[in-house]
Amino acid sequence: NLTVVDGREMDEGDDERAVYLIAIDDDGRCCSSVRIRPVDDFSYLIDHMPEWVDGDHRVLKEDPTVWEMARWINQSPRRKEASIGILIGSIEYMLGKGVSQCISCPDEDKAKHAKKRGWRLRRLGSPRRYPEGGVAVATSLQVSSVELARLRKKYECHHPVLLEIPPDAPWASLPLTVIDAAFRQVAPTTPPSTEL
User: Which residues lie below 8 Å from residue 192, measured CB to CB, with a gap of 6+?
Assistant: First the structure.
């Protein structure tokens, strides 16, 4: 259900409340990205596919500590590192916003792959076939300092990976490679940084 606006694919969740996390490679190119946002006013899963969630889906929508992850893309030749950066960066960001869980509806094979990479996804319902022919499953990811510590230990990532770039910062227009290099000097052992 994407529409094209000024050459960009968008849905109802691409609004002022959406946050886009971007992992960049060593050349400053986007290699992975994801959109996260609160679900209280819009959730693709809850608003368009409520039957995919067992039980009362409204409980999720009414909880201000629930966000949704959607529009994930990973084109990195170093897929594992980019996935780790997005996962840890997402949890870092959402912890700062008081989020307790993040729901999503990935293809079943991507959910299995994410679990192999260390994502502790909890199924919210049974896998279902969607009209385009694939199979997806509604999931929830716990967002907590305990989970963040577990992932940092697992991947030997002892420093933050999230670098938030406020649009009005005087350095925001610098090339991403320059910003990322400065960030890596402060946190040199991190996987590819995840940026907003």
Answer: 23, 24, 25, 26, 31, 32, 76, 78, 81, 82, 85, 161
- pLDDT tens for residues 103-150? 999 999 989 988 887 788 999 999 999 888 899 999 999 999 999 999
Of 192, 181, 187, 194, nearest in space to 19 by CA: 194
Q: How far apart are CA 42 and CA 44, in angstroms?
A: 7
Residues 6+ apart with CB under 8 A from 43: 13, 60, 61, 68, 103
State how far the Cα of 178 lies from the Cα of 79, in Å rounded to an integer: 23
pTM to 2 decimal places: 0.82
Which tokens hold the place of 105?
């509806």
Tell me the helix, strand and coil percentages in the chain, rounded to 5.
30, 25, 45
Say which residue the tokens 């770039």 belong to: 165
Please give the DSSP secondary-structure letter assigned to residue 53: S
Bridge partner residues of 103 (DSSP): 68, 140
Answer yes or no: are the C-beta atoms of 87 and 73 closer than 8 Å.
Answer: no
Quick check: 102 and 141 in contact, CB under 8 A? yes
Give residue 142's identity as a one-letter amino acid code: Q
DSSP 62: T
